TrEMBL record:
This is DUF306 domain-containing protein. Keywords: Signal. Residues 186-237 form the DUF306 domain. Residues 1-19 form the signal peptide. It comes from Virgisporangium aurantiacum. It comes from the Bacteria. The keyword Ribonucleoprotein does not apply. InterPro entries: DUF306_Meta_HslJ (IPR005184), HslJ-like_sf (IPR038670).
Length: 272
């Protein structure tokens, strides 16, 4: 009898071990949780921000951002680094006009993690909003439900969102105070320029089209978002596209060098 019980126990343990390797295996509680920008991807209920109950912020790969209110959705873009976050709403349905960035999003420069909750903070670390995991956007007629579904992260997205730009040793660390001011492309850019303001907004032009947005930086990391722009053909320089592609920056003999998430050089700017 003891031999039968022992064999049954061994068989049960073996079957349990096999089941744990299957597609429905439980998540290992000791596995490290995602951190950094990838941890922001998802559906978040916005709390403590003065929003109407049930407002949901959807943060998706490819810099897709949408804020879901009773009127519908406002859409835009986002950018993030390890502790930095920027969001910019640029368009919305006719029921959500005019398109305005709420103060909690407009002033957000970073984020903190408290358990599963994300805290958006301004440049001084003041709390602006709590993002609580989960939430179900109110989808109106004529809207593709996929636009409000929980975002899916592909292997390509994961690689992009977990990539840390490598700043070349030839560049020196740049502080936010050194970025403030007016800059022009080192290469010929006509009347193209960008002016970084101390309040973390920027204005500029590709030489024909005016634009603006927000920026933030710390250490070697630098991020920027851009608002809507006219589309006049121009022989200047694509300054707004440069800024929204930037993930890091450094100085080389007073020249501001912008780098993308892979560490590749985007552009060089000099004080103008």
């Amino acid at each position: 009898m003891k031999v039968r019980i022992a064999l049954a126990t061994v068989l049960a343990l073996a079957l349990a071990g096999c089941a744990g390797d299957g597609p429905n295996a439980p998540v290992d509680p000791a596995a490290p949780a995602d951190t950094g920008p990838i941890s922001l991807v998802g559906l978040w209920t916005v709390a403590d921000a003065g929003e109407e109950a049930g407002t949901v912020l959807r943060i998706a790969p490819k810099k897709q951002l949408s804020l879901w209110r009773t009127c519908g959705a406002l859409t835009g873009s986002w950018a993030a680094a390890q502790d930095l976050f920027l969001g910019e709403l640029t368009s919305g349905g006719e029921n959500c006009q005019p398109v305005e960035n709420p103060s909690w999003l407009r002033d957000a420069s970073g984020y903190q993690s408290v358990g599963d909750t994300k805290i958006l903070v301004d440049r001084n670390g003041k709390q602006l909003a709590r993002l609580v995991p989960g939430g179900k956007p109110k989808v109106g007629s004529g809207v593709d439900p996929a636009e409000a579904a929980p975002p899916v992260i592909t292997d390509e997205d994961r690689a992009e969102l977990t990539r840390t730009p490598q700043v070349p040793a030839t560049l020196t660390r740049v502080e936010p105070t050194q970025i403030v001011g007016r800059w022009v492309p080192v290469a010929a850019g006509g009347r193209a320029y960008v002016e970084f303001k101390d309040d973390r907004t920027w204005t500029g032009s590709d030489g024909c089209n005016g634009n603006g947005g927000r920026w933030t930086a710390t250490g070697s990391s630098m991020l920027a978002t851009a608002g809507p722009s006219t589309l006049i053909a121009c022989d200047g320089a694509p300054v707004p596209a440069w800024l929204t592609s930037t993930a890091a920056a450094g100085l080389a003999d007073g020249v501001l060098v912008l780098l993308d998430p892979t560490g590749a050089e985007v552009a060089r700017l000099k004080k103008g």
